[in-house]
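User: Hey, my collaborator sent me this sequence without any context and asked if I could get a structure. I don't really work with proteins. Can you help?
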Amino acid sequence: MIKRIFGFAGIIAILSLITGFLVVTYDIGGIVKSTFEKKASEFLKVDVNVREIKLDIFKGTFIASDININNPHGYTSPHFVEIRQLYTKFNPLSLFSENITINKVTIESPKMTIEFNIKNNNFSQIIKNLKVQTPEIPEHNKDKLYKAKADRKAVILEHLEIKNLYLHTLAGVVEANLTLNNIHLKNIGKDNNKLLFEQVLLIVLEQIYKDALKANIKSPSINFDKTLNNLRGSLKDSVKSTEGKLKSLLQ
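Assistant: No problem. I've predicted the 3D structure and written it out in structure-token form, which is a compact way to encode the shape of the chain:
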């Protein structure tokens, strides 16, 4: 009798583990997808859509497919960034500690459009949107713990790799294309600063922005400042021409 009870309990335990594994690995993907889209949209102040997310807590993998980050209002191109796949490897045990450790994030061949208008560009606008609601990043001080958001876990990003970033520059009727070499960032938040997710994201975006600017300055066919000045000049000429036509009609 006792053997049967233990045998029955063992079967129940195994079935529970299998069910739990299936739920965590597959069903939770839909919940994570909606949360990911909601939080990313709130941080960046633009719509963020993801086709599919696969999360395996036991293996420590997070895979997001077909991520589209829309442009802020006032820009003509529909998307700021299009990412076919974002692969993340994390330490599952770190979910139970103070710091969530992300071992590696890999993004392959993303497409980015940097669009200029008279006063700004979409990339700097998105960074500005994120900065507005991101707590100030504390200075490097091992004795100073970051407690502004004590209820949330800090994030450590050990390695980020972006491969073959396709960059499309758009300023009015002027367009240019460029592919950036691989971008690597390491050990963000590993200096006891207790960085939050949005702070890590801000550091990453600002570095990519700097790399994009450098790449365009080095390119003989593309220059952000020159393109923007040309656009401003074209608009000024158009305004003067319109003013001249109006004056001639009124005389």
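In plain terms: The radius of gyration is 24 Å. You can pass these tokens on to your collaborator as they are.
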